[in-house]
Design a protein that fits this description.
By secondary structure, this protein is of the alpha+beta class. The chain is built from 24 helices and 24 strands.
């Protein structure tokens, strides 16, 4: 015979998951039962049921209010609500007008419902923050002594090998030891397009493996993974109050004292000044305590800022606290580092000019590039790698090279197809206007157009590489760090947003900096700066524009990022210094995210101002209605709590893109 057993677990889970809502429901049930008892004149039963509604619905508020009073010696809104409800109940018992006890119970019920709704609203923000991070799994498939073993992530150590199969979440940060795959990094960078990864590349925990199995070697403890640090920063942002919220918190404490003092005066003076009866006087004073409480005002800021933080993180924009979200809305000047921020940070071949007068000939250009790349394929120099990549981009076959020798400071030499080839810098002798290569033979006088083109390119900040074969100049190539594809459009949009000054700060030479500035149409350029020089420029800009943002790569720009009102790190996936120094991290390597960050900051400012105006306006309206319109206590509670819920929901608008 089967035994019927009752498991308390579902009920316990319900209580743990929805305590405020459950208390409100039970309070409402006892309130209805008490009202029915009064309706049928069962006074004794009503006086038993209604206190239960008071206790269940008002316990948490009373506990919080008394804790604040006893520990911090401060009055808060929770305690004011309880005092108003108990005052209504006491007035009802004294006058034997028991409907006033119902009014007090309705006050507690609406306050409990409001608290539950606000709790759900804030949990929605928290869920949004956590879901955007795609939390890592609890276990990983470790390879130990050649065998697969499922281990808790916390037990993994640096050096361990972890196998990640196609379609699985990557459990923690690591370096690919074997395999090839595409990785969806949306949880880290906000970019949905997969990124190709192979041996030697770093992958991040919380990202999704594509169609290839990969083995990872852990190079850092799981607790130090990028996703864990990001989650910690976002959680920290939830607990830190921005200056505006700190001001309101201080304001609330002084305001609560004024309300209590005014409430006492309103409960005493009207019978003597305006001949009110004591019942009306006390009842109006209790309503005053309710409607004058600044609940809606206190909810005007934090839900908005937390929603903005969640929205930004979902798009790969990490605000480290609400203060920086506020500051982004006030930015008047933005300073950019050049290399790696406005530019790609990778040199590229931007122009090829053959010695032949047939400068438009693709074949002549390809010949120059092919000879240079044949040698540079043996070089690890960034310029050499740029030349090789350019050749690959044109699908050129590289002939074998022999006797290749790198000449530090000059270039590289070798033999290709039996001819001596030299690729590198040139020294144009003023007397002879000849090209000198070391150790290659002196070539004949190079074409005049190459010399003039070379000088023009160098004046634009480009590096010029000369290519010669068997003592004959084949042509020149211009190498430069190219602008990010979206840089020009981003600068233009920032100006359209009303940013007053766009400034470039760089340690590069002045000609290169000016060339970039002209292409981007920025307002000011500061070149050849050391890190401390950038800080000095930021300080001067702050004196003039107050709120100044600095955008950098998060490494060599760390001092300037720290000095700026808002420090913004670009493309900082995996960069410790960026997460530690910058106030805002653009996790995706996309400059246009900056515009979104400013728009988000301005939207948050606008919503906060709307919320504060609405909250103050509603308080004034309810106060006028209390003394001129004779509103009831439940109506005052509905107006007060309704305005609080509306302000909270208004702040949650920032969760939408």
């Amino acid at each position: 015979m089967a035994q019927n057993t009752f498991s308390p677990r579902p009920l316990q889970q319900l209580v743990n998951s929805h305590p405020e809502a459950l208390a409100a429901v039970i309070c409402g049930v006892f309130l209805i039962l008490g009202w029915l008892a009064l309706h049928f004149s069962w006074i004794g039963l009503a006086l038993i049921l209604l206190p239960v509604a008071y206790v269940i619905g008002g316990y948490e508020s009373a506990r919080l209010g008394l804790t604040t009073l006893l520990e911090e010696k401060e009055l808060d809104v929770d305690l004011l609500m309880i005092v108003a409800a108990l005052g209504a109940a006491a007035l009802g018992l004294w006058r034997r007008e028991y409907y006033l006890i119902i009014d007090g119970a309705v006050l507690i019920l609406i306050f409990a419902i409001s608290g539950a709704l606000e709790g759900y609203a804030m949990k929605r923000t928290e869920r949004s923050i956590r879901s955007l991070m795609s939390l890592t799994p609890d276990t990983a498939r470790a390879i130990l002594h050649g065998q697969e073993k499922i281990l808790p992530i916390a037990q993994l150590k640096v050096g361990d090998i972890v196998l990640v199969k196609p379609g699985e979440l990557i459990p923690t940060d690591g370096i690919i030891a074997s395999g090839y795959s595409t990785i969806n990094q949306a949880s880290i960078t906000g970019e949905s397009l997969p990124v190709e990864k192979t041996v030697g590349d770093e992958v991040f925990g919380g990202t999704i493996n594509g169609n290839g199995a990969i083995a990872l070697r852990l190079h850092k403890p799981p607790t130090s993974s990028l996703i864990q640090r990001v989650i910690q920063l976002v959680q920290q942002a939830q607990t830190e109050e921005p200056p505006s919220q700190q001001f309101l918190t201080q304001f609330e404490r002084g305001y609560a004292k004024v309300i209590v003092l005014t409430g006492i005066l309103l409960a005493i003076l009207p019978p003597f000044l305006w001949q009110w009866d004591w019942e009306t006087t006390i009842y109006r004073a209790l309503i005053f305590l309710v409607v004058a409480s600044p609940c809606a005002l206190m909810a005007a800021i934090m839900p908005t800022l937390l929603s903005g933080i969640a929205n930004g993180a979902r798009q790969g924009i990490l605000f480290k606290n609400g203060a920086q979200l506020e500051n982004m809305g006030r930015v008047r000047a933005i300073a950019f580092d050049k290399t790696g921020t406005l530019t790609t940070g990778q040199p590229q071949v931007v122009q090829i000019i053959p010695a032949s007068f047939e400068q438009g000939s693709r074949g002549e250009e390809n010949r120059v590039l092919q000879m240079a790349a044949a040698l540079e394929a043996y070089s690890e120099h960034p310029i050499g790698q740029a030349i090789v990549q350019a050749a690959k981009g044109r699908n050129l076959e590289l002939p074998p090279a022999t006797n290749v020798q790198a000449l530090p400071g000059f270039g590289i030499t070798g033999e290709v197809e039996g001819k001596p080839i030299a690729v590198g810098k040139a020294d144009a002798a003023k007397e002879r206007s000849t090209l000198t290569y070391l150790p290659a033979h002196l070539p004949p006088r190079p074409p005049a157009h190459l010399l003039s083109d070379s000088q023009q390119l160098e004046s634009e900040g480009k590096t010029v590489v000369w290519v010669q074969a068997a003592g004959e100049v084949l042509g020149i190539m211009a190498i430069a760090d190219t602008l990010r594809p979206t840089a020009t459009q981003t600068i233009q949009r920032l100006k359209q947003l009303g940013v007053e000054q766009i400034i470039v700060l760089t340690g590069d030479n002045n000609s290169t900096a000016q060339s970039v500035a002209q292409q981007l149409n920025v307002d000011q350029v500061y070149a050849e700066l050391l890190p401390e020089d950038k800080v000095s420029v930021i300080r001067r800009l702050q004196k003039q524009y107050k709120t100044v943002a600095m955008v950098g790569d998060g490494v060599n720009d760390a001092p300037a990022l720290a000095a700026a009102t808002v420090g913004i790190a670009m493309g900082a996936a995996g960069s410790d210094i960026a997460l530690e120094t910058a106030d805002i991290v653009l996790m995706a390597d996309r400059l246009e995210k900056l515009e979104q960050a400013i728009r988000l900051g301005r939207r948050s400012q606008a919503i906060v101002k709307q919320n504060i105006a609405f909250a103050l306006g509603f308080i004034v309206l309810l106060l006028v209605a209390n003394f001129a319109g004779n509103i009831t206590l439940p109506f005052g509670v509905i107006g007060h709590e309704g305005s609080t819920v509306l302000v909270t929901l208004s702040g949650l608008r920032l969760l939408r893109n």
